[in-house]
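Can anyone check this?
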Amino acid sequence: MQILTPLKIAYKAIKIHKVRSGLTVLGLLVGVVSIIIVINLGGGIKGFILNEVSVFGSDYLEVEV
């Protein structure tokens, strides 16, 4: 079997099943973008909380019940 044979088979499958291939690419794109958004939101919230806590200083502790 040649090295390019699997690539030719994959290209033909993508050409034949255009809608399925497009939906697969769209699903991957949505998944990657979702992960990036969640990671960035987590970092932003962490930064916000650290900024708010740093306003009190290091010698201040408040407990509320």
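Reply from J.R.: I decoded it. The first helix runs from residue 5 to 16.
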